[in-house]
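Exercise: predict the fold of this chain.
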Amino acid sequence: MASEELQKDLEEVKVLLEKATRKRVRDALTAEKSKIETEIKNKMQQKSQKKAELLDNEKPAAVVAPITTGYTVKISNYGWDQSDKFVKIYITLTGVHQVPTENVQVHFTERSFDLLVKNLNGKSYSMIVNNLLKPISVEGSSKKKVENTRWDYLTQVEKECKEKEKPSYDTETDPSEGLMNVLKKIYEDGDDDMKRTINKAWVESREKQAKGDTEF
């Protein structure tokens, strides 16, 4: 139904509503009035939407520039070695020798370095290593700042992870102290039965020591 016809129906319902006196009739007319108003509103929205679509179709198409560098791949596979003066990082990238020198960028700090290889076979490659085990010479790129010291790990994180796997006691300390550390470790990690067993053994050991001191 056209908007003009709906508008005429609305005006007529308003006239009838003004003249109606019975509640049931007024309720029916009021409901019909709301229905017609909703239809008119929907018609107007549809008309506005079509107008907006026509305007959008008249706009010139956007020009999208082609992306030539592709995406960046994170380098996770590498090897490393060291001499008395240098720590060397080995990375294999097929075809890297063919890219221009300026496409290979390395940035060093005292305790980190990051590598970026741009536009290699349509991709970029990145490697970032933070928190190196020891300070390095930024000017010398790969020269260690403190010579004649050995790197057991490449980063501080690797060192801390490996040290956590070591036993919590020191075998070079006093044997009795080492034993106490072992018992403490077992007690902390054990269940309730294990803790009761260790407590009982500890009490009995103390009692025997006390008796031995009394006899002497």
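Check your answer against the key: The radius of gyration is 41 Å.
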